Amino acid sequence: MLDKNGIAKRIAKEIKDGYYVNLGIGIPTLCANYIPKGVDIVLQSENGILGMGPFPFEGEEDTDLINAGKQTVTLLKGASIFDSAMSFGMIRAQKVDLTILGAMEVSENGDIANWKIPGKMVKGMGGAMDLVASAKNIIVAMQQVNKAGESKLLPKCTLPITGVQCIKKIVTELGVYDVLPEGGFKLLERAPGISVEHIIKSTAGKLIIYGEIPEMKID
Amino acid sequence: MNKRVENADEAVKDVKDGMTIALGGFGLCGIPENCISALVKKNVKGLTCISNNAGVDDFGLGLLLHQKQIKKMISSYVGENAEFERQMLSGELEVDLIPQGTLATRLMAAGYGMPAIFTPAGVGTEVAMGKEVRKFKFNGTEKDYLMEYAFEPDFAIVKAWKGDTQGNLVFRLTTRNFSPLVAMSGKITIAEVEQLVEPGELNPDNIHVPGIYVHRIFQGENYQKRIEQRTVRKKQ
Hints:
Number of strands of chain B: 11
Radius of gyration of chain A: 17 Å
Radius of gyration of chain B: 18 Å
Largest sheet of chain A: 10 strands, mixed
Number of helices of chain B: 6
Distance between the termini of chain A: 15 Å
Structural class of chain B: alpha/beta
Helix content of chain B: 10-25%
Distance between the termini of chain B: 53 Å
Number of helices of chain A: 5
Largest interface: A-B, 56 and 57 residues
Oligomer: heterodimer
Helix content of chain A: 10-25%
């Protein structure tokens, strides 16, 4: 079973040279630590940065420079700053190659729910609805099974959705899946030590398995 | 054309109960601290505030919430703010949560003279309820778009790094965020700046908001510029 860093490591292998990438809060942010050597990418932060760098060294924080998670960050050489309309403009216009974000539920037709739990304080969707509605390539990082043992890969989302039919790839603690255009989670890889049976039991939506499923390589 | 006013109190002198105000800033980054303090002092009530976030309990728009000056918040993310949560759950505060890009673009539309925009954000979700949906073929595919109206706030309030007395504004780093869009949206736009300079001192090539959008400008003071999430790494 993969931990958060394991999920991030596996997703990082999907990031290709020359990509502009938007990383959501949580596990997606960790992906930046595992970009393969020789892969040159530019990170976008939707408050208005291209070329976002790592956290600043202690004492070098700049109160005027934060990311979309409101964390202090740095800029890399070649970075640019712009307003939020342009930022979402480049997202909507599909100039950003890859979006990686978290989810609470994904349905077998690619709907995603990640912004609201009825009965709990709603904090808002932030940029999530814009990102899922527009990104040409979205990878979801999520826990497939919650603490109560319930699968979060569902026939239909039970939570209010963030976007419809927009998710094409999912990486969880148990495996890697494509969401097929005709519906269904196609199992591509198993997490180390996880059996296909375990995955079948942990998937509430339609699971599609063709032939031998390889164990993923993450290191 | 000299748009300089003395201070925040003078800048917000005619903000009245029940008005709609758009405010720049992302989290606590780049918020108009002086004008927020002046609005707290003035104690105008029943405000509708358009702002990406709602501040924290003891700073930013949280200060207006604390005095129950806000009737309605229009935001994309309202974060960790206990008083906000209490007022929202008790029904004292009306909250309209909208996607961040939609918020930015509705402000932009106002400044560009466009009554509405079409965006795919929120299609098929509760955000789309009661809104017009149109199909467009664009960027190689046909899909649904939501029609969203431009905001038309009575006042727009931003904080810039530098500004001149003509109202031209320059922002520093990510304090830019929503601020140029907010500045463009106001029937009356107020800018507070860290450095107020004379015309000619700013490079015309580097202006982020041309002065035509700004009606009042003043030199701000005592900026706290708080950091919400101080994240650092250790030197090797």
